[in-house]
Amino acid sequence: MNPYLEERIRELGFRITPQRQLILEAVAEAGEKARIEDIMERVQAKSSAISQATVYRTLEIFGAHNLIHVNVLDGQRVYEVAGENVHHHMICQSCWSDEKIPHKVVNEFVDNVQVKYGFLAQPHHLFLLGLCKHCQEEEDKKQISKEEEKRP
Ligand SMILES: [Zn+2]
Ligand SMILES: [Zn+2]
């Protein structure tokens, strides 16, 4: 387990059973945007006795304690082990590319919100959905060719 998580768990006084440890490791191994099936596959490879309901419930507990990030992507929950570096994702809805935005960029937005509305936002893992630079250019090209078609 990564040292950051070990420390987080210690701070929380969170009881980490061998089963929970196994599930946490499965999330780490499954990488970013891991779906329940990806995690389940890894869990069952190590212990077939753990049910999907248990894994699901455990993931919710981990999420509530910020040991993992839970986001929704394309209507499905996706999981990622929390790391030391707070980061956010820019995910393209056309090609599903994924780029990271450092927290300091998001912090400028957080500051603006606080100044304007007095609300202190505490985003720790944002999924910004949109169009990447490449796909925007593709969209523009499509737009242009459509307009050309319309011309008599
Ligand atoms: Zn992430
Ligand atoms: Zn794209």
Quick structural gist:
With 152 residues, this protein is an alpha+beta fold.
What does this structure look like?
This protein starts with a helix and ends with a helix. The chain is an alpha+beta fold and 152 residues long. It has helices at 3-12, 18-30, 36-46, 52-64, 103-117, 133-150, and strands at 34-35, 68-73, 76-81, 87-92, 98-102, 127-130. The chain has 6 helices and 6 strands. A 3-stranded antiparallel β-sheet has the order 1-3-2. The model has no long low-confidence stretch (mean pLDDT 91). The structure holds zinc ion (2 copies). One zinc ion binds next to strand 4.
* Distinct helical segment count: 6
Cα shape:
flat
- Rg, Å, rounded: 20 Å
Stretches with pLDDT under 50, minimum 5 residues: none
- From the helix content, strand content and strand pairing, which structural class follows? alpha+beta
Describe the strand arrangement of the main beta sheet, using strand numbers: 1-3-2
What's the helix-strand series? HHEHHEEEEHEH
Q: Distance between termini? A: 65 Å
What is bound: which ligands? zinc ion
Major β-sheet, in short?
3 strands, antiparallel
Helix proportion:
40-55%
Furnish the topology, listing elements before pairings:
Elements: H1 3-12, H2 18-30, E1 34-35, H3 36-46, H4 52-64, E2 68-73, E3 76-81, E4 87-92, E5 98-102, H5 103-117, E6 127-130, H6 133-150
Parallel strand pairs: 4-6
Antiparallel strand pairs: 1-3, 2-3, 4-5
Helix pairs in contact: 2-3
The structure holds zinc ion (2 copies).
